[in-house]
Specification:
α11 (202-214) links the parallel β3 and β4 (219-226). Helices cover 51% and strands 9% of the residues. The protein starts with a helix and ends in a 15-residue tail after the last strand. It has helices spanning 3-8, 17-21, 26-36, 48-62, 79-92, 113-119, 128-135, 139-145, 160-163, 167-187, 202-214, 236-244, 259-270, 276-286, 290-301, 311-322, 326-337, 344-350, 356-365; strands spanning 67-73, 96-101, 190-195, 219-226, 249-253, 342-343, 369-370. Among the domains are: 48-252, P-loop containing nucleotide triphosphate hydrolases (Rossmann fold, 3-Layer(aba) Sandwich), CATH 3.40.50; 324-385, no CATH class. It contains 19 helices and 7 strands. The protein is of the alpha/beta class. Bound molecules: adenosine-5'-triphosphate and magnesium ion. The site of adenosine-5'-triphosphate has 23 residues, from α5 and α15.
């Protein structure tokens, strides 16, 4: 859900609940859970329609229709899990999947880093003639951003200095990236995944714009991003608006789980059918968000008798609230005290806090109602400020 979340959940998976439950000692079971770092279900839940869309998009590229699919959804809803599942299926069927991610580093991040990450390791297993063939005539230029392509300097790390280049060199570099991806896609069916576009830097967005416009081979490009991070002036918005105008770009929205899916998510960790009231509690408090559901369940499992949220989850949630404008934070204090979505009209009547701007921001998300994901009757964001 955020940089914090990586250390909380870390993407690791719990050994299947049945495996954990074979250990009679509660202490051992707790250690196994702690080692896994999360109670993430080891089994995959739902998303049949979304996987179908991904496979259909992949098939379109294979009949000569290059496609880019933007996988959009709120933080923690399950974008990475969905795309990883799809990537596994493609790899099992013999396809090539390259994955790179944007990271929340702000200034100082290396240009093109998601693409570089995706292409790293490319030279492994290729002899020098084959590599030269694949990389093409602009090898020296590409090696400035991907040093492993330079036989003399293969161990070097890319650095900012090597990437400072004139506009014409940058144009050639984009062409070189395009040529490399096209030659790769000619060798085997291929998917390029760039994750977390909401953190992309300018250079990555420029390169992606160029690639999406110019790719002419059987290559499916998947771009994931958080819808709730894209505030009005977010630099990714114009990029997405530009993509939207292309017929070759489609969007796949990943929604929250329904109650049954949350039950299935918990099932993997409980090792059987979870109790109906547990499912109800987790579903209500998480609103169907997979990450929140897992973290809340972890808290319940650890017999966290306190009505408060576990600190890990509290930090993640508060870091998202604290960057909001003051009036929105004030409004959230009220919304958080309600045990579910609040109608805008009621909210407008209930206090003097919601300014027209704030209500507009709420309305942009949902036309009629406003909700805070973890309604906690005894604790609101204001308690922790
Ligand atoms: N379909 C699913 N089946 C089982 N577990 C899932 C599923 N979708 C998500 N999860 C679990 O929920 C958690 C959050 O999912 P994921 O990391 O994919 O979210 P995300 O949308 O990529 O979040 P972020 O915006 O932070 O990157 C993970 O622990 C993941 O394993
Ligand atoms: Mg993700």
């Amino acid at each position: 859900m955020s940089g914090d979340r990586r250390t909380v959940a870390g993407g690791k998976e719990l050994p299947p609940a049945t495996a954990v439950n074979q250990f009679p000692s509660e202490a051992v079971r707790r250690i196994l859970v702690a080692m896994a770092g999360t109670v993430a279900a080891s089994h995959f839940v739902g998303r049949a329609a979304e996987l179908h869309r991904l496979h259909a998009a992949f098939e379109s590229t294979r009949v000569g229709d290059p496609v880019t699919l933007c996988v959009a959804g709120e933080a923690g809803v399950g974008k990475t899990r969905l795309v990883t599942r799809f990537a596994d299926q493609i790899r099992q069927a013999g396809g090539l999947v390259l994955i790179g991610g944007c990271i929340e580093l702000g200034e100082g991040s290396l240009p093109y880093s998601p693409l570089i990450q995706a292409l790293r390791g490319l030279s492994r297993g290729l002899d020098s003639a084959d590599l030269a063939d694949l990389v093409g005539p602009d090898r020296a230029l590409l090696a400035r951003v991907l040093p492993e392509l330079d036989p003399a300097d293969g161990a070097a790390e890319p650095n900012s200095a090597s990437m400072i280049m004139s506009a014409s060199s940058q144009g050639r570099l984009f062409e070189a990236f395009l040529g490399l991806l096209e030659r790769l896609a000619e060798r085997s069916p291929m998917v390029l995944v760039i994750e977390d576009l909401h953190w992309a830097d300018r250079s990555t967005l420029d390169l992606l714009t160029f690639l999406v416009r110019n790719l002419r081979v059987a290559l499916l490009v998947i771009l994931t991003y958080r819808t709730d991070d894209l505030h009005r002036r977010h630099p990714v918005r114009p990029f997405l608006a530009e993509l939207d105008r292309s017929e070759r770009v489609d969007r796949l929205d990943v929604d929250r789980f329904d109650r049954d899916e949350i039950a299935q998510l918990l099932q993997g960790s409980v090792g059987g059918s979870p109790a109906a009231d547990l499912v109800e509690q987790i579903f209500r408090r998480s609103g169907g968000n997979a990450f929140l559901a897992e973290e809340l369940f972890a808290a319940v499992r650890e017999r966290n008798a306190s009505p408060n949220l576990p600190p890990s989850l509290e930090n993640v949630l508060l870091s998202r609230v604290q960057v909001l404008p003051e009036d929105t934070q004030a409004t959230l204090h009220i919304v958080a005290a309600a045990s579910g979505p609040v109608e805008h009209q009621l909210l407008a009547r209930s206090a003097t806090f919601p300014s027209p701007n704030c209500l507009l921001r709420c309305a942009a998300r949902s036309p009629t109602r406003c909700s805070f994901p973890i309604p906690t009757p005894r604790r609101t964001p204001s308690d922790t400020r």
